[in-house]
Amino acid sequence: QVDVAAMARLFGYVDVTDTGFIVAVISIAFNPLFWNVVARWEHKTRALSRVFGSPHAACYCLGAVILVLNCVRSHCFTEAMKSQPKLEGLDYHWTFYTGLAISAVGTLFVISSFLALGFTGTFLGDYFGILMEEKVTSFPFSVLDNPMYWGSTAIYLGWSLMHASPAGLLLTAVVAISYTIAVLYEGPFTEEIYRQKQKGVKNK
Length: 204
Prior knowledge:
Elements: H1 4-12, H2 19-45, H3 47-52, H4 55-82, H5 93-122, H6 147-162, H7 166-203
Helix pairs in contact: 2-4, 2-7, 4-7, 5-6, 6-7
Protein name: Phosphatidylethanolamine N-methyltransferase
GO cellular component, one term: endoplasmic reticulum membrane
EC number: 2.1.1.17, 2.1.1.71
């Protein structure tokens, strides 16, 4: 159950009208919207593959753009935290080291997920027709679904705790919500891509 009083106190430390905070929210929400819209457009039209000469080149280009956007998001997130007050109740050594541990676990999930999927598997290669032979079930996918997303969320959570930042905690919640929505759209669509692949194999 959510502690309403605690949430109210947390919001009391955050100026949601601050320009930096608003920019951070926009950057967080924009990223998954951008890559889902572009990837679905590519899947429908193959326009990027034609422009870049191959699906792999197009996928690598989109991946590079996503990486840049994620760097911008992280910068906006950090600047929003810096511009708002710390929460004294969180500004302790144990909180810092807890946040550090959470960020380390998140980083482990992100890196191991990338290594398991490869570049094209990580950056929506399925939408470019670059399909994997079988579903990845090794770590970290053996522990949880969508480890890249939740690992990234954990990194932001840990970063917020390390800075004792109520604004950071609130922005982390925005990250989690954005990824949850992205999963709801990406999951069924990706499953349909692989269903069509299996259907094509059976019809041969």
